[in-house]
Write a structure and sequence with these properties.
The chain is an all-alpha fold. It is built from 3 helices and no strands. The relative contact order is 0.06.
């Protein structure tokens, strides 16, 4: 059995209140991982082209108020 399968089984066996706690924990964990990835990508310049495109559209009047 793989680690992922073991985790899936363990999660399926959690009582409702522990599943709710796990969901809250995992959401925070996943959010932090996402933030770290975005920061790493930004630091590596991987988002520069997207930012340049957005700024060009803004300066060419292609943006609108949200």
């Amino acid at each position: 059995m793989s680690t992922i399968q073991a985790i899936e089984q363990a999660v399926q066996q959690l009582p409702a209140h522990e599943l709710a706690e796990f969901r809250q924990w995992f959401t925070k964990f996943d959010d932090a991982a996402w933030d770290a990835q975005i920061e790493a990508d930004a630091g590596a310049g991987k988002l520069d082209a997207l930012a340049a495109d957005a700024l060009a559209e803004y300066h060419n009047g292609m943006a609108r108020e949200l």
